[in-house]
Amino acid sequence: MTWLNWKGPRADRHAAQGLLAIGLVATAVSILLPRLDFGAEALKLCLQISVAITAATLFLSALFIHRIVDDRRQIAESEQRFRRAMEDSAIGVAIVGLDGRIQQANPAFAAMLGYSRAEIEALTFPQITHPDDLQIGRETMQNVKEGRISSYHFEKRYLRKDGSPVWAQLAGSVIRDEETGKPLYLVSQIEDIDARKQAEARIAEAETRWNFALTSAGQGVWSLDMRKGGTTYSETWVKMLGYADGELNGSPDRWLTMIHPDDQGRVAEADRAHLAGETPFFEAEFRMRHKDGHWVWILDRGKAIERDAQGRLIRAIGSLTDITERKQAEARLMVSAAMLADEKERLRVTLQSIGDAVICTDAANRVTFMNPVAEKLTGVEVGEAMGKMLGHVYWAVDEESGQRIGLTRPPASERPHCDRNTRAVLVRRDDTRCSIRQVVSPIMNDRDEFCGLVIVFQDFTDARALQRQLAYAAAHDALTGLANRSSFIRTMEDLVDQCRLNGGEHQFMFVDLDHFKAVNDTGGHAAGDALLKRVADALRNVLGPEDIVARLGGDEFAVILKSGAERGPIAARSIIDAIRNLNFSWDGRPHSIGASIGLAPIRAGRGEVDEIIARADAACYAAKAAGRGCVSAAPDEDLGDYTTALAAAS
Q1: H or E stretch covering 357
Q2: Which of 423, 407, 559 is CA-nearest to residue 488?
Q3: Are strands 92-97 and 102-105 parallel, antiparallel or unpaired?
Q4: CA-CA distance, 136 to 579, in Å (whole number)?
Q5: Of the candidates 575, 467, 454, 439, which has an alpha carbon nearest to the alpha carbon of residue 514?
Q6: Closest CA to 117 of 145, 86, 144
Q7: How many whole angstroms separate alpha carbon 365 and alpha carbon 389?
Q8: DSSP-assigned letters across all residues of 76-115
Q9: For 497-533, how does the pLDDT look when each residue is reduced to its tens digit (9 = 90+)?
Q10: How far apart are the first and last CA of the chain?
């Protein structure tokens, strides 16, 4: 082998030089000593010395020859061991010159790239390297030549004989001249890591889909592992707080320092209770400081998944959701429901208990993920749902039409988009239903290919009921339950428009109570409120179900008779009689009140709503001037001026 053979000549050269020196010494002594003028004894001594030196020379020569033979044997054995290790290695091995040429390659390396040994040893490393990775080899060779490195380790792609790429991991050493330190060649070990790289790519794609689902749901993930030194947070979550990926990883207690001071005690107690095993899971809503200083509302759910023998926490995992918008919505709804004091607390508890439910599917519409809130809302456990078609788990219909809301992949000709439906109803397997708000988002990979769906939905049943209550409150008087002024005006406007378009006539009554102020002055506002409720009941009892009754404010009421004008005086008198006969008492003291009524027709050509009300108000004033407890009709220009006063029954 080239890397071993260069040592043999060097050993022979040193041995020859040593023998030559000894031989020269022995020769010089044997030549010079006889020429010296010594006596017989001296000459004898010199001859003995010469013989001894010659014998020593022969002995040393034998030793050097033995050493040379032994060195060559060891070199041959080392070469044989290296050759066998190289030939039998399952990992590719190559000896590479400083010019990049492959001087020798083992069968594993040749087979890895689909070449024969002869073919690959005729190539250079740049010829079999992927074009995008050529710079790695150039930098390594330059560092070798300049003496900056003695070994190297990196990953790069090679090209097989058929042109396909293959990932490999290289580890190698630089062989140098022992005396000069000059690099001679490189010995590289090449391991095929293509399968590992492909697995990493698949994992990365799965993680991308998972992160996309979490992003659509506004959720992040945290993981605590005491063995690895702390907590890590998903990219989705750190972005919620304005940080870079990995910037918050580390200390398991850092998140507590970022919580709003007003929330720290409550959150710390919930964390302590779960770590102590007092609660099955951790759940808390709190504010965390964004990197720019503002506060973000967070819903944090987590669970310990591993403890040591002493019960101390080892690993935990959980999710974080930005609920800032939900909190802002809660505040707005609570303000809107200020008049519904008994509903306010129930609304707050309901909103605090609501979380986002999430279901994910693959491209074939099979369920791949469900969170606990989705399990609760659908009534299907995640173990049963996984791998099933979406229709077996989640069935949503339109609230108005009852038609199923299809959740499938978008057509190829249609650009993928989020589908929002705020009027949906979830139908469970037991045929129970709940109103929901859902957002359906398609998952597209980096090649713009459809990969599945993310369905985010919330239980909206209580909120829908509250909307109906608020709509009722906006149209009715809070004290009497009658239509309020604004809704009554809208109704009159519709009737005026109908009369203008289709003809017909209705009668408007302006009803003002007589002597009501005396009740307020003597009995207080509580007495007045109770009396107004009695008046409202009396009006409803006297009039028909198709007639419209409203409280305009204070002790003023309004009535629209949907039938013809001839009913006006009769209905008005019935109202006056009913109010006069209320027999109202407060704190044992009886009170007697009456009513004065002004009439005005609602028909085409009689003006707009404010004009009709003004005429009826003027007629009511005339009735009061006529002695109260009577009815006065507004002048009708078509019939001439007239005033009809009906005396109240005694």
Answers
A1: strand 357-361
A2: 559
A3: antiparallel
A4: 101
A5: 575
A6: 86
A7: 6
A8: HHHHHHHHHHHHH-SSEEEEEETTSBEEEE-HHHHHHHT-
A9: 888 888 888 899 999 999 888 888 888 889 888 989 9
A10: 137
The first and second tokens of residue 509, run together, are 């009554």
- Tokens coding 257: 């320092």
For 573, the 3-state DSSP assignment is helix
Q: How far apart are CA 136 and CA 133, in angstroms?
A: 6
Distance of CA 476 to the CA centre of its chain: 43
Active site residues: 555
Task: Give the C-alpha separation, 263 to 287, whole Å.
Answer: 7
Residues 319-331: tens digit of each pLDDT: 888 888 888 888 8
Plot region of 340 (φ>0 → left; ψ -120 to 50 → alpha; else → beta)? beta
Q: What tokens does 319 get?
A: 């999710």
For residue 411, the one-letter residue type is P
Separation between Cα atoms, residue 471 and residue 484, nearest integer Å: 12
Q: Would the pLDDT of 640 be above 50?
A: no
- What the block records as the tokens of 431 is 């045929």
C-alpha torsion sign, points 444, 447, 448, 451: negative
380 touches 369 (CB < 8 A): no
d(CA 629, CA 627): 7
Beta strands at 183-192 and 165-176: parallel, antiparallel or unpaired: antiparallel
Burial of 489 (0-12, 13-18, 19+ CB in 10 A): middle
Q: Which of 60-64, 197-201, 394-398 has the lowest mean pLDDT?
A: 60-64
What token pair was written down for 618? 């003027």
* Main-chain dihedrals φ then ψ at residue 3, nearest 5 degrees: -70, -15
The CA–CA distances, whole Å, from 564 to 81, 614, 616 equal 120, 21, 17
Whose CA is closest to 157, among 185, 186, 135?
Answer: 135
CA 197, CA 217: separation in Å to the nearest integer? 30
Residues sharing a CB contact under 8 Å with residue 163, sequence separation 6 or more, in sequence order: none
Q: What Å distances lie between residue 126 and 120, 123, 132, CA to CA? A: 12, 8, 11
What element of type H or E holds 117?
helix 117-120
Q: Indicate if the pLDDT at residue 603 is higher than 80.
A: yes
**188 contacts: CB under 8 Å, gap ≥ 6:** 93, 94, 95, 96, 170, 171, 172
The first and second tokens of residue 461, run together, are 């049943």
Secondary structure letter of residue 201 according to DSSP: H
Residue from 419, 425, 430, 421 nearest 402 by CA: 425
pLDDT of residue 158: 92
Greatest pairwise CA separation for the chain in angstroms: 188
Which residue from 568, 545, 548 is spatially nearest to 557, judged by alpha carbons?
548
As a residue count, the chain comes to 650
| Segment 252-280, tens digit of pLDDT | 778 888 899 999 899 989 988 988 888 98
Higher pLDDT, 641 or 534: 534
What is the token pair recorded at 523?
Answer: 């009995």
Residue matched to tokens 């239509």: 483
pLDDT of 344 reads 46
Q: Where are the beta strands (DSSP E) in 484-620?
A: 505-514, 548-553, 556-561, 584-586, 589-591, 594-603
CA 227 → CA 230, 231, 274, 306, 470, distances in Å?
8, 10, 20, 11, 54
Q: How far apart are CA 540 and CA 536, in angstroms?
A: 6
Cα(606)–Cα(612) distance, rounded to whole angstroms?
7
Average pLDDT for the chain? 80
Residues 551 and 532 sit within 8 Å (Cβ to Cβ) = yes
Radius of gyration of the chain (CA): 50
**Cβ density class 525-562: b for 16+ within 10 Å, e for less:** eebbeebbebbbebbeebbeeebbbbbbeebbbbbbbb
